[in-house]
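ugh ok fine here u go
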Amino acid sequence: MREKELRLALVCYGGISLAVYMHGITKEIWHLARASRGLHDGDPPPTGSAAVYRTLLEEIAEQGGWRIRILPDIIAGASAGGINGIFLGQAIATGQSLDPLTDLWLTAADVEALIDSAAAPASRFSKVWALPLAWMAAGRSADSVEALDDTTREEVRAKLSHFVRSRWFEPPFGGTIFTGLLLDAFDAMAAAPRGPRLLPAGQPLDLYVTVTDFTGHPERLQLHSPAEVVETEHRIVIDFSDGGEQVHTLAPAAELAFAARATSSFPGAFPPFSAGEMDRVLEMRGSRWPTRRAFLRRVLPRHHAANAADRAVLIDGSVLANAPFRPAIDALKQRPARREVDRRFVYIDPSPGTKFRLGGSGAEPGFLQTILGAISELPRQQPIRDNLEAIAARSERIDRMQGIVAAIRGEVEAEVEQLFGRTFFLDRPTPARLAAWRQRAHAGAVAKSGFGFAAYAHLKRAGVLDHLAAMAAEAAGDTGAPRRARIRGALAAALDERLADDDTAIVDFLRSFDLGFRIRRLRLLARRLAEVEADPPDPAITAMRRAIYETLAAHLDRQRGTAHPALRPAVRSWRGEAEPLLGALATALDCRRLDDETDARLAEALAALPREPRRTLLLSYLGFPYFDVATLPLLQGEGLDEFDPVKVDRISPDDAVAIRPGGAEATLKGIQFNSFGAFFSRAYRENDYLWGRLHGAERMIDITVSSLPPTIRMRPGRVAAIKRAAFLAILDEEEPRLTAIAALIASLRREIG
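structure:
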C-alpha cells in the first residue's frame, strides 16, 4: 500500500459577514481531517459528513492502492478569514470541536448583539434619512428588501434601520462586545469534549494572521547612499505554532482573541483595537493574562522596544493583505517529511469577482466612490497574481531541478561505478562501510567539479551561516532581522578567522553544521525510492522507506531553534563572542552523532533490499554530491523542504456547482449591503453557513480525489455519488438546528435528488 500526505496550506480571505459562510467551509475541512486521522488510527467510524469522507478514503485505499492522509498544517487568514483560521487552528492543534462555534455564529453575529449600546439610536427618528444611503453604499435599493419573505423582510428592515441610525461618525459595533464574544467562543470550545490532535506527532500546525498597524512602526533599510533610511511599516503578521506536539491550547485564549479581534477590526464598523481593550475586557471577566508582556514583545517588537505596545492601534488585516499567501509560502521551509507529499495551497474566497458598485455599471466613478475605493476597496481586492506567480516560480524550480537530476543521472552513476568498481555493490552495507563510502564519494565529486566547486562551497557556507543565525535567533525567541544579522556577522567573522589559520577549516565547519546538505541527500534518496518502488511494494522496500523518512524527520527536527531549549540561555547571554556560540550550536546540532545514527539505520535497511534496488539507491545516495553541485545554485542555496511542485486550489461559490450554479449571487445572502448582509438576519446566517458546508464538502472531495495519480480513476459516477451522500448527511445533521430556512432545505433536497 503506497502512502501519501495531502498537505493543505489554507489561505482564508476577508469577507465581513461572510465569515459565517467560511465557518461552514472550515467545518468541512475539520471533518475531513478528523475522518482521515480516525481512519489512520483505527478509530470507530464517525457520523455525518465525516463518515462520507472516511468512506471516500477507504475506497481510495482499497481500489487505488493509496493510503492518503489529509493534513491541514498551515493556515493564514485575514479579517473574517483570520477569525475562522484561528478557530480552525485551535481545533486541529488541540483536538477541540468546532461544533460549539456554530450556535455562537448564528446567534451572536447579529447587528443587535454587536452594536455598541453607546452608539444605539437615541430615538427611532434619529438619522432615519440615512437609510437610503446604506442601500446606495451597498449597491442596492429598497427593492432588495421588499423582495424578501415577510418575516425576513421585517427583520432586515428593522435591524438595518437600527444600524444606520446609530451614532454618527462613530463605529456602530462595540469593540469590547466583540472581544468578549471571541473569548466566549474559545471558552465554549475548551468546555466541549475534545479528541486527539489532528496532525501526526512532529507535524507542526503553523497559523498566521495579518493585522494592520494604523500608525505604523519604523523599519530600517540599508542603502548605498545614504547608508540607512527609515520607512514606516504598517503590516503585521501574528503567528502561532504548536511545534508539532499535543498542546492543551495553541496559545492562551487572550492571545488568540487578541489576534482575532485585531485582524477583523473592519474600518468604520468596529473601533480600532488595542491591548488596552483586551485588558478592560479581561478585567470585567475577572480573567488574568500572565503571558501578556511576552506576547506583546513578540508580536509588537518595535512598539515594545519604545514602551508603546499598549498604545499600538490595530485595524483590519485585510486593509493591506486580504490574501495572505506570503506567510504561508514562507512556512513551507523546514516542514517535516514521513512519506510522499502532495502539497496544496487552498484559498477560500467567499465572493470572487464581487466588485464595489457604488457608482453603478459603466458610469464614471464619482467623488465619494473614488475616495472609498482608493482607501479601502481597491487595496482589499487586489488580485493574487503575484502570490500565484511566486508559487509557480517555486514549482518551476523544482521541475527544472528534477529534470537536471534525471538528465545527469547516467553520468553520475557512471562516475560512482568507476570510483568504486562494479564489484563494490556485492559488499553488504554496514555503518562503517557506508560512512567510508560517503567520504570517498564526496572527495570524488570535489575532484571532478573543478573550479565550480569553489563557488558551490561558498554557496553552502552562506546557507549554513544563514541557518545558524536563524536557528539561534529562534531559540532565543527573537527572530527579528537585526538580531539575525548581528549573529550571522559574528559567526562569519569567526569562520574567516579559522580559515585564515587553516584553509581546510571549512571542511570541519561543514561537517559540524551543514544540516541542509544531509537533508537534501535524504530527500533525493526518498524520491529515487518512489521512482523504483513496485506495486505492491516489497516489504524490504517499505522498511527502506520508513528508514529514510524517519531519519529525515530527525534531521528536520534538528533545524528548529525551538527544538533546542538548552541553546536559549547561550544565545540570550551572547555578547558578541562567536566561538562560544558556535560551540553551543555544534552541541545542539550534534551532526556527527546524527551521521552515525543515519549510517546505522540506512545500512540495515539497504542490506535487507534485493540486489538491484539496493544498487539503485546506493548509486543515488553516494552520487548525491555530484547532483548537489549541479542543483544547489538553481535552488538559490536554500534547498527545498517539500520536493514536489505545489498545486493551487480555490474554494468559492463559483467553484462548487454540483447543486446550484450561479456563484455567490445564487446562493449567499451575506454579500448584500456590501458584505454586511448576514449581520441583519439569522435566516441569512443560516443560509450562508449551510451553503458553506455544502460548498466545502464538494470542493474537499474534489481536492482529495485529485491527489490520486493520473493512472488511477474512481469508478464512473462514484465521485458524484459520494458528493450526494455528503450533501444529504449535512442536511440531515443541520435541519433540526436551522429552523429559519426550512424552505431552503426542502428545495436543496429536491435539487440534490
